Amino acid sequence: MFSSFATKVTLALILGAANALPGSNAVPKLDTRTTAQHGYINVVAATLWTDSSKPRAIDEPALTHPVQLEKWLSSMNVSDYRDLTSNSRTQTQALYGARVEILNYESGWYEVAVPGQATPKNKLGYPGWVPASQVSLDQHYGKLQSSKPFATIDKAATVSLYRDSSLKSKLMEITYDTRLPVLKEKGSVIEVAVPDSGSAYLSAHDASIYKSASEIPYPTSLDLISTAKLFLGLPYLWGGMSGYAFDCSGFTHTLYHSHGISIARDADAQADFTGHGTRVEQADLQPADLMFYASNLSDPSTIYHVAMYIGEGEMVEAYDAGTPVRITPARFGDEFWGGERFLAH
Ligand SMILES: *[C@@H]1O[C@H](CO)[C@@H](O)[C@H](O)[C@H]1NC(C)=O
Ligand SMILES: *[C@@H]1O[C@H](CO)[C@@H](O)[C@H](O)[C@H]1NC(C)=O
User: Fold this and answer.
1) Closest ligand 1 atom to the C-alpha of 77?
2) Is the CB of 80 under 6 A from ligand 1?
3) N or C: the chain end with fewer CB closer than 10 Å?
């Protein structure tokens, strides 16, 4: 995704602070000592919109609680998907239970920033607007999230979360890379905390438990490639970052993030902004290196696409609207900007 909304961010921070003043249209329970308050995503994946005017009639299933992502994705044709990009409607997604910083409130919508999705647009995290019904203010959940180990979904694109410890009554689907605080482990069942609903249950086969992200085992290139293969065939969605659909950089961000390595959210920022990748020339590419494409090779801000090299002259990518996530011959044409390595080999 392109970084064309940098100016909006400063404004939003100012508005966020203004909203904290008495007598203004304040966020419910806003902590006036800070410009931001924590909220927690309470749907499988909340889509962040550029602003509240951007959703179309066809996007209604993406705005509800519970959200109906499969219905939304299957109702759109290729022009509807493409229009999300060309009219800059969607920005990114945040997964169930994820903490967001609330920056602003306006007529049933929160402007939030998603920590961990690094971007030059806002130092707090990736910014965008979400329906307020998709954000919980459950601060008890927040305390558990900051103090308990977490269970992370790392075996499949989507898995079931249950209401009961016998794993019979399904609460909802959750997606790959969702992280929920662990309350208890018993046999092959993990009890997790969820926003607004107390607790829920996962099969231990679907998740791994870590005390912190730094405990996640350092991956090999093969680990990253096996993870990528879980998502082959998923739809391309501008702003998509869940086990239902991805955009190019949401895909590469998620592959690395789930293995404990943080890279920026957008393609240009992944190449240029985080500073911890190493530039790799074509001849030196190794599996799991990221490959970037730019319309002007001398100007990193024109980078518009990222894919992951998987070896043997092939790459895996979420390419564009209408093209499912795929393995394809690595492209080294005019617009190949170069590679970046985030793994220490
Ligand atoms: C795609 O669906 C929209 C409605 O969502 C419709 O207006 C449009 O004509 C359709 N386009 C194509 C190419 O089928
Ligand atoms: C490409 O980027 C460079 C560096 O910013 C700039 O000097 C040059 O004019 C750009 N070329 C085109 C064709 O825009």
Assistant:
1) 1
2) yes
3) C
Cα(261)–Cα(257) distance, integer angstroms = 5
Contact assessment for residue 39 and residue 113, using Cβ atoms and an 8 Å cutoff? no
What radius of gyration, in Å, describes the C-alpha atoms of the chain? 20
Residues with CB under 6 A from ligand 2: 296, 298-299
83-98 core/surface letters (b: 16 or more CB in 10 A; e: else): bbbeebbbbbbbbbbb
* DSSP 8-state symbol, 236: B
Q: Which residues sit opposite 192 in a β-bridge? A: 182, 200
- 11 Cβ closer than 6 Å to some ligand 1 atom: no
Residue minimizing CA distance to atom 10 of ligand 2: 296
Greatest CA span in the chain, whole angstroms? 63
Which H or E run contains 10? helix 6-19
Which ligand is closest to the CA of 296, given by its number?
2
Ligand located closest to 72 CA: 1
300 C-alpha vs ligand 2 centroid, how far in Å? 10
CA distance 78 to 321: 6
Distance 303 CA to ligand 2 centre (A): 13
Does the predicted TM-score (pTM) go above 0.85? yes
Residue 258 to residues 93, 193, 227, 230, 262, Cα–Cα distance (Å): 15, 20, 9, 13, 9
**What domains are defined for the chain?**
2-137 (2.30.30.40), 142-215 (2.30.30.40), 221-341 (3.90.1720.10)
Q: Is the CB of 58 under 6 A from ligand 1?
A: yes
Q: Decide whether any atom of ligand 1 lies within 6 Å of the 83 Cβ.
A: no
